[in-house]
Amino acid sequence: MDSAEQLVEGKANLVRMLEFVQLTEDEKFLVTEGIELHQALIEKLMDVSTPAGPTPRELDAQRQGGVKMIPIKSVRHTRRKQHEP
Questions:
Q1: What residues contact 3, with CB distance under 8 A and at least 6 apart?
Q2: Residues 11, 39: contact at Cβ < 8 Å?
Q3: What is the pLDDT of residue 82?
């Protein structure tokens, strides 16, 4: 699991904590603050280049386009050898 997935999972865990765990007002404040900090970091990382080059935001935009292509820089045609009977 990469760090972006861990951040999203961490945020989801904090949201579940708010929903399902009895917390004091101070604890609710701290958990809410944690959710906001997770979201801010996730947003910040959306514009950081991946090792392959594009940012996560660019990758998401490509996925939303619906067209999935593998770029081909060049195609070489080879001649097939004809077999004699």
A1: 45
A2: yes
A3: 61
